[in-house]
Amino acid sequence: MEGDLVEALQAHQYIVVELGHEKYALKISEIYEIIKLQKITAVPNNKSFLEGVTNLRGKIVPIISLRKRFGLESSKKRKGERIVVVQYKEEMIGVIVDGVSQVTRFTDIQSSEDIVSGFDGYYFSGIGHSEEGLISILDVEHILDGMEVNER
């Protein structure tokens, strides 16, 4: 019963991450952990947004750049950069963001299909209304589409 309550509370909570001056949100329930930027080993690949892999307590985790995934300019290393480790198809994948700012709940969530269309809209599951204003909610499944570790 207690686990169900925790899951219900987490379903409505989001972590706000930063990319440049923009803020985006990820469901807390999709996040495994948030860590400081650490050594990333480059690996040969055909995905321009895959930075490489890192060792997270004995487990090799692929790391992607959210900036590159969105086709944004790479930034110089920022002091607040973090790796948000998410669960994706039974695997852990790290996503580099410029910063992590807070936990929030939205007073209302509107479908992103009503607002954003085309390729850009594919990465978002909705737009959340909060005290800080409007924040785009990232769709982890679409952002990480095709990132299976065992992919051949």
Secondary structural class: mainly beta
Low-confidence stretches: none
Q: What's the tally of helices?
A: 4
Strand content: 35-45%
In spatial order, strands of the major sheet run 8-1-2-11-10-9
- The rounded Rg comes to 15 Å
Helix and strand succession?
HEEEEEHEEEEHEEH
What's the rounded overall pLDDT mean?
Answer: 84
Q: What's the overall geometry?
A: globular
Spatial gap, N to C terminus: 41 Å
Most strands sheet: 6 strands, mixed
Task: Write up this protein.
With 152 residues, the chain is mainly β. The protein contains 4 helices and 11 strands. It has helices spanning 2-11, 66-69, 118-121, 140-143, and strands at 14-19, 22-27, 31-36, 50-56, 59-65, 82-88, 91-97, 99-104, 108-110, 124-130, 133-138. Strands 8-1-2-11-10-9 form a 6-stranded mixed beta sheet. The longest helix is centred in the first third of the chain and has 10 residues, at 2-11. The protein is globular, with a radius of gyration of 15 Å. The protein starts with a helix and ends in a 9-residue tail after the last helix. The mean pLDDT is 84.
Keywords:
six-stranded mixed beta sheet, 152 residues, 11 strands, 14% helix, five-stranded mixed beta sheet
